[in-house]
Amino acid sequence: HLSHNKMSGVIPFGLAHIPRLTYLYLDHNQFTGRIPDAFYKHPFLKEMYIEGNAFRPGVKPVGIHKVLEVSDPEFQF
């Protein structure tokens, strides 16, 4: 749970390499940019909460949606 921590910048790429990561709560911070492709390839990640951040309008997740369920419909394919 990293929600409501006033974190900013791009989503840290290293988070996608946490073994057995199942749920990732990044909501209500100030993240920008794109969602790293590694999150879509993570074998255990089921949900990643990203709403309430400062993504630019029109920014879409990168990669092929396989196991990641994004809670903000604005960022879904």
From TrEMBL:
Signal peptide start and end residues: none
Residues annotated as transmembrane: none
Short name of one Pfam family: LRR_1
Source superkingdom: Eukaryota
UniProt-recorded name of the protein: Leucine-rich repeat-containing protein
Source species: Actinidia chinensis var. chinensis (Chinese soft-hair kiwi)
